[in-house]
Amino acid sequence: MGKVNQHELDEFAKDADAWFAQNVNTDPGFMLPLTFMEVGTDQQFEFLRDWQSKVYEAGYLGAAWPSQYGGGGLVPAFQKVATDAMRRHNAPIMLNAIGLNWTGPLLLEIGTDAHKEKYIKGILSAEDIWCQGFSEPENGSDLGNAQLRAKRTGDQYILNGSKIWTTLGNYAKYMILLARTNTDAPNKYAGLSFFLAPMKIEGVETHPIRKLTGEYGFTQTFFTDAHIPAEGLMGEEGGGWLVAMKTLEYERGTRDGLAGGCMITPLDAFAVIELAKTLERNGAPVMDDPAMRDKLVEFIIEAQSLNLCKERAHIAPLNEERPMGLPLSSKLMGTEFARRINEFAITMQGTRAGYYVGDPGAVDDGLWTRGYLNAFSATIGGGTSEIQHNIIAEHVLGLPKR
What we know:
Layout: H1 6-23, H2 42-57, H3 76-88, H4 97-110, H5 113-125, E1 130-133, E2 149-153, E3 156-164, E4 174-180, E5 192-198, E6 204-209, E7 218-229, E8 233-234, H6 240-251, H7 270-278, E9 280-281, E10 284-285, H8 290-312, H9 325-347, H10 367-380, H11 385-396
């Protein structure tokens, strides 16, 4: 890692702050998604694709990725200050989250030069949207039991089966795909392989899934004799489980190397306090209720502790006893916190909580109800909260498997 020139970093941060102050548009005239998992209309998609491309061209996305593949070639500190500027100015999310956070870092770590040259720049510019093909309708959290078949024929693999919860699958050009290449392997994990699979080919169909919120964003993807090039195989045939586990480390935030940017609109816990000042219960502001104030204080303390945990995770001496403790628990704690604080915001609204986006009586146009309902997707994606508890128990605390 190169040495940081503090003067150059300060100038970069100053320029980034000015650029986002001038260019951020938080009200394009339609509802902006809170997360990349909520992009359900062409209008949202095109706006966010253009926005990511604009941020990349300005030099504030992928700043720490290698310049020979389209990145900025700078040290990670530069990307951090750019992402901080995005958050300060409440910038729209980055659209190509699976490419920026999972596929790109994976390719830079273990991909071939050909893979990097082919895919990295398109990931950053949002020209090439990526989706993830891990979960299947019949296997849920049992990822190792994936049954979508990939049979090699010459320089191609033929795919048959389906994947579900493929976020942005209907827009994606490529998919990171876990498929079964050997049904006679000694165990279920040994028969899996990992592919960089094209989506816009014959034999691939995506069916949008309508969520409880009324939005789309997820799809089910069907493969029927779909031919993909063998050069898309990552690692060795039958070695896909290890590649998938490495991918999940990026997805769960336990590894560095992400492109930067905000994939989820940051939750402002202090906004709940402002909400409590404006809402009334029994003719008085909710904030006047001592029990509600105590609960609000607990949420603020928890929010601050999560922020401090992110900083602590990068200080080696504070993590010597259990070095993976904070990285592995951050996904669990953060997603569950978002769900609970949105739920609390709803309880403060009383009967008005029954209104949703677009309803005249909705509080903040249904933001908190929308946030609550959508929060569940983050507690499931990347491994459910139940799975995360097991991972922490086994890999941090050293407890035996049940």
